Amino acid sequence: MYRVLIVDDEEPVLDSYEFMLKGTGDFALAGKARTGFEALKLIYELEPDLVFMDINIPGLDGLEVITEVRKKFVPMVFILSTAYERFDLAQRAIPLGVFAYLVKPVSKKTFLGALDEVRAALKNRVPDQAPQTEDEAARQFLQKTIWKEISAEDWEGYRERFSLPSDKGIVFMAELDQDTEIWCGKIAEQLSYRHRCRWDVILNRGFFLVFEELPRDTLEGRLLGIFREIKLPPGICCYGIGEPRPGPELYQSCNGALRELQNKLNSTDMKQRERQKIVQLRHKIGIAGAEEVKKLFKSLWEEVFSSGDFTLAKMKMCALFLFLIDDCTGSYGAHSELEPPFYPAEEILALEDMAEWELWADDAFGKLLFQATLHRSGNFPLPLGKAIEYIHGHFAEGLQLSAAAEAAQVSSAYLSRLFSEHLKTNFVDYLTELRIEQAEKLILEGRMNIKEVAFAVGYQDPNYFSKIFRKTTGVLPTVYAAQGRVSSAQEGGYETDKL
Question: Response regulatory domain: from which residue to which, for each copy (predicted)?
Fold first, then answer.
């Protein structure tokens, strides 16, 4: 039986991990810790085989705990869990031999999958005194050695031991949404036909080292060819490539590959957040309060303009305003004779700086709010109005479509059609957005913890609430709360790095 220690400062996470451990057969909970110092104490007392370690815990952070523990318990398996991915955290975690890196909320499927991998690793664990096999030495070389500067003398030793054909190498990392081991094995097989390389899976990502002075663009072209050759499904792989470096400086290629991968993942998250805010804005305009909708609109354009080129941001805003004009007036609907209140492309593209954009956007969005109120509220059938009123009064309950339909005195099927025709959404999505909107307000008020907020807006499972909150807003509720505290400190004139 393998002993497991869970380290996290959130009770819902501790409870969730404990629940998922039950019934796994050969894993048993040995203890729980809520701070870094408590984690150190229990690790030395219990000597667990596996530790689920949150990074952001009071006292010593998770990585500091692992650094200290590694001095004595080298074979101990650590799985990091954190609310968000960051380049600097992954950069620190890899040389410590962290087994996996899970982003909260962790689904049961992901949790059990990680346990399966740990189980296989623990079964193959050898005593410390046993000599390293060639594969074990190569694995340690990839996982730990090349993430830091290597002396010229040591590098020559590695070249001789592993029969390395070149004094230079280049690193790339790949993150896949599914079957990481399988796809990485196929990539390595194809790559090895032309190049000498080593590969491993580190922190749930494929890590490849090509022993050759290969230009970065050449390697990328060959990788794309390999993806086509092995029929890798589009959209499931994100990769980063470093620059070719001499052996003692391979850590720079490692860091470059990890940094590019992280930037690509962050860009994907940003696009997803943009899309979610656009969907929310289109659903709310003309229905929700004017100040709430204005705040959502400003939040959207601030993120768009801060994340890229000014001209590209203006083009995105042109597309957004075309959607909003049609939502608010119907003037771009089929066979419509209504004239748009303005033509966004001509007006937006002529703007030269942010000051001009803010003035224009404030005026244009105000016009659309007025049009939306007239168009949408005047065209709602009475049953839909009754249903919306009922939902807003009972969203904190275990609300079902049938209950809203009964309040509106129509069938569930008819009410579902009204949502689709007039609100361009469905009952579940409308209810979810309303609940998350209320949750955001409660979190920023700071009077409730995350578990209490989940209950207050109608979710009985805090972990499910966290998952839905992240899907809707792009961040976990704990991160959203932390961002809110930072914003409040900035507005109050405090130094945020001291919070």
Answer: 3-119
